Amino acid sequence: MQAFLERVWFGGGRGGWLLAPLEWLFIIISSLRRFAYRRRLLASFHPGRPVVVVGNLTVGGSGKTPTIIWLANALSDRGLRVGVISRGYGGSDSGPSEVQSTSNPERVGDEPVLIARRTRARVVVARDRVAAAAQLAPAVDVMLADDGLQHYRLARDLEIAVVDARRGFGNEHRLPRGPMRESRSRLSSVAAVIVTGEGDPGVPGIRSRLVPTSLVPLGGGPRVVLDEWAGRRVHAVAGIGDPERFFRTLEAAGLHVIRHPKPDHARLAAQDVEFADGFPVLMTEKDAVKCRSFARAGLYYLEVCAQPEAVAADRLVERILALVAQRKGST
């Protein structure tokens, strides 16, 4: 089913019309829900600290997690105490639970563990994002809500939409006929659009590159500059929303890639990264947090960093700083 949907959404595959009735049902329900929150027929909760939502209009990978890591670090560097709220997708814990860099991703989700590893932010996961925000509020100056663009029960002060430059909006149909959660017109109401990767999705925004920094051995040892492996044959395992983005990054550095795509948030076992030919196995950092218990020589993850356009990114950070100062001044 996932392969069929990917072909329909992004590859021009046939058969999408079969899903048209479900698409219209999704449009009606989601539109009524948003209308109810905008008209205050349903109540929203504000935790008393500025809330910055970082989300997207489509399902699947868009570079959202690297963007959150960049923004959390940029705000921490400016002296703010940063909190991150996450649904903890793929984890079993209903929460609210605080995430550490050593937390079990099967319990709290892989992306929250990655964010906790790469930032100084306090990360809390909960199926109820409002409960997560309430727990964080006393300890932080600002909250970043991971993938909360359509979660209207949590009131927000600023919205950021992340768009994948390569895949854009696919066939632009709503779920399940297409990958869209909301229409492209929703971008007109957000404070900033961040366009990640190479390509032209047809919308203006802050361009952001996902820059590979190094290959990190899971079993310990020195890092490796990616370009030094040009010409080598490797296995590449990717359980992310857009595995092709990972594979193309490796190939752009000159590596010969044997592809092993996995579903987003897939649980990995030792046999998933064992291959008889002995070639090195490369994975995303998001996948690596799930492989600590069977780390060994020959397993590496690729560390990447989001690098948005400096001037526009600084303006966005300053805007968030102003929100924090305004909130503190009103209390």
Description:
The chain has 331 residues and is α/β, with parallel strands linked by helices. Helix content is 29%, strand content 22%. The protein contains 9 helices and 12 strands. Helix 7 (243-252) links the parallel strand 9 and strand 10. The mean pLDDT is 94.
At a glance:
With about 325 residues, this protein is of the alpha/beta class. Helix content is about 30%, strand content about 20%.
**Order of neighbouring strands in the sheet with most strands:** 3-4-2-5-1-6-7-8-12-11-9-10
Question: What is the percentage of strand-forming residues?
Answer: 15-25%
Indicate the CATH topology of the largest domain.
Rossmann fold
- Number of discrete domains: 2
CATH architecture label of the largest domain = 3-Layer(aba) Sandwich
Order of helices and strands: HHEHEEHHEHEEEEEHEEHEH
Give the radius of gyration. Answer: 20 Å
By DSSP (H or I, 4+ residues per run), the number of helices equals: 9
> What is the number of beta strands?
12
Principal-axes shape call = globular
CATH superfamily of the largest domain: P-loop containing nucleotide triphosphate hydrolases
Main sheet specs: 12 strands, mixed
Portion of residues in helices? 25-40%
Question: How is the secondary structure organized here?
Answer:
Blueprint: H1 2-10, H2 20-38, E1 51-55, H3 64-77, E2 82-86, E3 97-99, H4 105-108, H5 110-118, E4 122-125, H6 129-136, E5 142-146, E6 158-164, E7 192-196, E8 206-217, E9 233-238, H7 243-252, E10 256-261, E11 281-284, H8 285-288, E12 299-308, H9 310-329
Parallel strand pairs: 1-5, 1-6, 2-4, 2-5, 6-7, 7-8, 9-10, 9-11, 11-12
Antiparallel strand pairs: 3-4, 8-12
